[in-house]
Amino acid sequence: MKSQMFSVSSFGLAKGKELVSEDFAAVKVIDDLCIGIVCDGVGSARAGGKAARRVVNYLMNNFKTRPRSWSIEKSLRHFINNINSILYREGIDEYERPEYVTTLSIVVIDANRLYGANVGDSPIYLYRNSHLQQISFDHVSDEPGMEHVLMQAIGLSESVDPYFFENNLEVGDILLLTSDGLQKVLENREVENRLKFGASTLIKTASKKVNDDLPDDTTAVVIEIKGESKHRKLKKIELPIPRTLKKDEIIDGYRLLKPLIQNDRTWLAEKKGVKYVLKFPPVEAIEDEQYLDLFVKEAWNASRLKAGFFPKAVIPKNRTQRYYVMEYLEGVTLKELIAKKALPVEDAIQLGKFLLHACSFLLKYDLVHGDIKPENIIVLKRHGKRVYKLIDFGSIVEVFSIATRAGTPSYLAPERFTGEPISEQTEIFAIGVTLYESLTKKFPYGEIEPFQTPTFKTPKPVRTYNKAVPAWLESVVMRAIERDKDRRYEVYSEMEYELTHPEKVKPYYPKDISLFEKEPIKVYRWLFIGSFLINILLLILLVR
User: Fold this and answer.
1) Topology of the domain covering 332-513
2) Residue 331 · residue 379 · CB < 8 Å
3) HSE value, Cβ hemisphere, 13 Å, CA-based, for 422
4) Range 473-478, long-range pairs (CB < 8 A, 24+ positions)
5) In angstroms, rounded to a whole number, what is the distance separating the alpha carbons of residues 230 and 43?
6) Which CATH number does 235-327 carry?
7) 340 Cβ partners below 8 Å, 6+ apart?
């Protein structure tokens, strides 16, 4: 597997003539983040192989969805301690002793920074300047003749004390994570000679050396640092940030016409008769690296998210100041449009599909928009039809990041007010509120002010304000804005399916609604039948 920054590979073989290895490994590149894991299930444990698979899957899945407010070190400590406790308790419950036991080696690379941890004796090596060096610590006995005895392993005891380490990486560095089976066959010099060719070549070389009769399960993960991230490269470019910007000022051939936002950092500009939008960093970015980092990420996202859902954006190569350029969209915001008249049903359906498709595209990059609302949707007219564009690259963040109340309060899901991270479900809530407002010109839970802690009372159905909305569409919107996330759509595709298959949509009611409000005809029918039976019974008693 290759990326701009990393070349990664993983491979393993079972010992001897065995068909299944007790080792398990995985490596994954997620944007600028690379995660590599190797676990060697302890052979003397009855569930060592199962433990190895459980640990790798648990750590990989949790790292992909970790809160972005957590440091990598905190994430490593938390997840390792959690899976250790889980496997230890399960061993005691099932076998009355620890049997879900495995070693663990894990590295997480964020840009050029290495974070690692290990428990047990599965080593981690760094190959730099033609030299292979172990950077992990073997948790084995110091007693002569007892060097093979593990002093620590995942699932072996109620608590665990991993060895943690950090370092900077350089382009050309290679990381090797391996089970201890490789050490039993290949010397360091042999590893160094084969490492550049990846995990498969390394393990097959070891197997061939012992005539395909490996003395132990043998697994390796190889990660080569190929280059710097685009984001890091952009940040390193030394460019001035203007403190003030003025009308008719010319920057790299762009003439500034007027500011589009009150902070005077987003400008309508003209170059060779064509209009553009120029976005500059906030003034705070001159002194505060955090502001600069956020702007660089915004510009990077804007330039790489090449799809019809968003305005086209580029970062000019020969800039003399720090900014990026977007196409100018001659349209109106959805907020301006619906201020005059609610959106027609067919247009609202298309809007819903557009937003879900745009969000699904962002999710491929592990991103969410973070501030879906009518103000951030531009409506254009093309060939007599309405076309939508989603704007504001500055709000885009990684999925599952905890950004407290980042976004616009009236469109935030209830769980966002209690510190839960941004997810598909919180974005679906914002889409639902946008559709509700577009169809009714009202907010389902009222307009929420910044820093207000709202109470989410049962919203009125869409058709209360707009009788033209079909019942099935009302059900879709009401489910999207459900306060209880367990009753809300879980993923974009689920909501998109119902928007495109009206006949499959079941009536949706709030949890606290009465049966009479849900199905009045059925209630009347039951009352009639009950009344009829009571009258018959009374008649029988009178006749007697």
Assistant:
1) Transferase(Phosphotransferase); domain 1 (1.10.510)
2) yes
3) 28
4) 473/345, 473/348, 473/349, 473/502, 474/508, 475/505, 475/506, 475/507, 475/508, 476/352, 476/505, 476/508, 477/432, 477/435, 477/436, 477/439, 478/432, 478/508, 478/510
5) 44
6) 3.30.200.20
7) none
Strand partners, 259: 267
Instruction: State the Cα–Cα distance between residues 394 and 35, nearest whole angstrom.
Output: 27
CA distance 525 to 490: 35
Which stretches of the chain score pLDDT less than 70?
1-3, 31, 68-69, 147, 402-405, 512-524, 527, 544
Least Cα distance to 107 among 228, 50, 170, 26 occurs for: 26
CA-to-CA distance for 348 and 441, rounded, in angstroms? 12
Alpha helices in 3-100 (DSSP H): 48-64, 72-95
pTM, 2 dp: 0.70
* Residue-level pLDDT at 33: 84
CB 226 within 8 A of CB 169: no
Structure tokens at 538: 């009374």
- Of 398, 267, 374, the C-alpha closest to 321 is 267
Q: Where are the domains of the chain?
A: 6-228, 235-327, 332-513, 520-544
Residue 521 pLDDT: 64
Write the CATH number of the domain with boundaries 6-228: 3.60.40.10
Please report, to the nearest 10 degrees, the dihedral formed by the alpha carbons of residues 517, 519, 524, 526 taken in order.
-120
Closest CA relative to residue 16, chosen from 218, 201, 203 = 218
Distance between CA atoms of residues 417 and 169, nearest Å = 38
Q: Which residue has the tokens 């590149």?
A: 29
How many Cα atoms occupy the beta-carbon half-sphere of 448 within 13 Å?
Answer: 22
Check for a shared fold between 235-327 and 332-513. no
**Predicted confidence (pLDDT) per residue in 288-331, tens digit:** 988 998 899 899 999 989 999 999 999 998 999 999 999 999 99
* C-alpha to C-alpha distance for 220 and 18, rounded to whole angstroms: 18
Q: Give dist(CA 35, CA 31) in Å, integer.
A: 11
